# Entry
Amino acid sequence: MKVKVNKDLCIGCGLCEGICPKVFKMNEENVAMVLVDTVPEEEMENVKEALECCPVSAIEFSE
Ligand code: F3S
# Structure
């Protein structure tokens, strides 16, 4: 499973990085970027939580 951040929606709240720093990282423009190509199995729960917590629904799964 892959995950992506819609950079046009992200408001830089940083919640995703706080919940799942192995997958999300804020870049110098204060937009979240995804660090991994494929989400590791053990991070799936954290990624789902980040997806649900993002206030602007900028995180989405993709195949
Ligand atoms: Fe951006 Fe949502 Fe993360 S606003 S910083 S993608 S929690």
